[in-house]
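User: My advisor asked me to double-check a structure prediction for AIG1-type G domain-containing protein before group meeting. I don't want to rely on an old file, so could you generate it fresh from this sequence?
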Amino acid sequence: MECIMQQDKQQLPLHEVQLCLVGKTSTGKSTLGNLLCLGANFKTSAGVASVMSMAEQAHIEYLVHSILLVLLNMMGLGDMAHQPELVQPKITEGIISLVGGIDFFFLCIKKEHFTEENYLIVMYLFRAILRDQLLGNLWLVVTHTEDLANNTQAQAQWLHDVCNNKMFDHVLRMVGAQKVLFINNRSLKNKQMDKMYTKGHELAKDLLLQVMQSNKLVQFTIESLEAAQKEYDDMKAAAEGERAAEVARLRQVEIDAVMALEKEKARLAIQEAELQAELQAELKLVTARAELEAKLRGEAEERLRNAPTPQQLITKGGGCVLF
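Assistant: Sure, here is a fresh prediction for AIG1-type G domain-containing protein from the sequence you gave:
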């Protein structure tokens, strides 16, 4: 897309600024892109996550600010509904499309809420795709803030309130509280109603252009991206290696426990067999002893039965026994 805005008849030398809009689906990236680049006609997601075939670009000249703005409207990180393996290459493709690197990232969030889902998506951007290398280029843009955009006291109160949210506080500490921008980019798709926001839109645009004009460009290049993703891939591989090692260790512990149990079972079986053998031997001994005693007792009883009585002895002897 090509959209040129003539702001001053006397054209000063332009310096190119390459800007990338990132953020969760439905955080106002397309609306912000249309605000910065009139005529770009970026389509909004309407809250539906989708993996675009390619990121959208637009160009505009801001002669008063001496800026040639090249804007990249990146796919929503809400597309994390898809597998990271599908999302990451699409974001990489978008960054590669900006030859020479990216000067600024505007990370869009809505002021209404910062949920755990928002936090996980933003941290995925920081940790998995762009890493900490993007923080020098990144500004946090709070969208749909028509009630805060021109009220520094209200902005300070909002920051104080949301910092009670530990997840947002963590993100804010990473980015820096001085790099939070409040803008009114709301569009009601109604020309009459949009007039209400015209001044706010112009102030928001001026604020963003001042940021791009007054801050030193710190380019995030494809080399930065590759280094960031290699760092993540290495960390992921190391973590997977540690997990695999831990699984193997636990498996070995389980195997050792089973083997120890089987060994103990075998030892107990041998011990039981030995005890059974001893018991059988003892039983045989007791049985033999009882049989011997019974035999001896029977023989003694037999001898008693067969022994002559006193009368038989007297008669047999033929004598007389006096008492």
